[in-house]
From TrEMBL:
Organism: Hibiscus sabdariffa
Record PROSITE patterns: GERMIN
Main location: secreted
Keywords: Apoplast, Disulfide bond, Glycoprotein, Manganese, Metal-binding, Secreted, Signal
Domain of life of the source: Eukaryota
Signal peptide stretch: 1-19
Annotated Cupin type-1 domain residues: 61-198
Pfam families: Cupin_1 (PF00190)
Name assigned to this protein: Germin-like protein
Family per record: Belongs to the germin family.
CDD domains listed in its UniProt record: cupin_OxOx
Protein location: Secreted, Extracellular space, Apoplast
C-alpha cells in the first residue's frame, strides 16, 4: 500500500505519454509514404480540422467540362495520418472525369444531384457500370480504373470520400499522351496509330 501511494504521483504525471490523437500535417516538411510530420500540438487550431472548399462550385470551363476540388492532405492538413480525405466533383452537361485511378485509395462517391454514369474495370477486365441518381453511392475499389460522366441535361454534383489522405490521382489519358515519351513508343505500347498518338499528344500537351 505504501508503495502504491509513493508511486501514484509518478503515475499521474506520466499521463502526457498518451495515445496521439491526431497529427496535423506540417506542410513545410517532407512528405513520406506515411504522410507528413506533425505540427506542434500547441500550434494546432480548429481550422486545421475544417475545410470549406467543397462548398464552392468548381469551374467546369475546360476540355472535360468537369472540375474536381480535392480536400486531400495538401489542402486539408488535419486529415494527415487519419486514413481519410474527400473531394467535390462538378460535372457540366456533357462533362466527364476521364478514365483514372487513385493508386492508394478506395473511393466512395455520393451523388448530391444530377445523373452520373459511372463505372470501373476490374483486374480481370470485367466492367461494373451504373447510371447513378441523386442519393446513390458507388464504391470504386482501390487502384482500379474508373470514370464518371454526366448522364443528364443539367449539372451534376457528387462528393467523394477516400480511405487515404493521399489517394493519388493518375488520369490514364494524361499518362499516355501528356508525356514526352516518343510517339513511336506510345504507338508501339498502345496499339494506336501514329497519327492518333500525335493528335492526342497535341490535345493533351504532350511532346515527342
Ligand atoms: C473558369 O475557367 C475559365 C478557363 O480557365 C476562365 O476563363 C473563367 O474566367 C473561369 N471562370 C470563373 C468564374 O472563374
Amino acid at each position: 500500500m505504501l508503495h502504491i501511494l509513493f508511486f501514484l504521483p509518478l503515475i499521474l504525471t506520466s499521463t502526457h505519454v498518451i495515445a496521439q490523437d491526431f497529427c496535423v500535417a506540417n506542410l513545410e516538411g517532407v512528405q513520406t509514404p506515411s504522410g507528413f510530420a506533425c505540427k506542434m500540438e500547441s500550434e494546432v487550431a480548429p481550422d486545421d480540422f475544417v475545410f470549406s472548399g467543397l462548398g464552392i462550385e468548381g469551374n467546369t470551363s475546360n476540355i472535360v467540362e468537369a472540375a474536381v476540388t480535392t480536400a486531400f492532405v495538401e489542402q486539408y492538413p488535419g486529415v494527415n495520418g487519419l486514413g481519410i480525405s474527400a473531394a467535390r466533383l462538378d460535372l457540366a452537361p456533357g462533362g466527364v472525369v476521364p478514365m483514372h485511378t487513385h493508386p492508394a485509395a478506395t473511393e466512395l462517391l455520393y451523388v448530391v444531384h444530377g445523373r452520373i454514369t459511372a463505372g470501373f474495370i476490374s483486374s480481370s477486365n470485367a466492367v461494373y457500370l451504373k447510371r447513378l441518381r441523386r442519393g446513390d453511392i458507388m464504391v470504386f475499389p482501390r487502384g482500379l480504373l474508373h470514370f464518371q460522366i454526366n448522364a443528364g441535361k443539367r449539372p451534376a454534383l457528387a462528393i467523394a470520400s477516400f480511405n487515404s489522405p493521399i489517394p493519388g490521382l493518375q488520369i490514364l489519358e494524361s499518362a499516355l499522351f501528356a508525356n514526352d515519351l516518343p510517339s513511336a513508343l506510345v504507338e508501339k505500347t498502345t496499339f494506336l496509330d501514329y497519327a492518333q498518338v500525335k493528335k492526342l499528344k497535341a490535345l493533351l500537351g504532350g511532346t515527342g
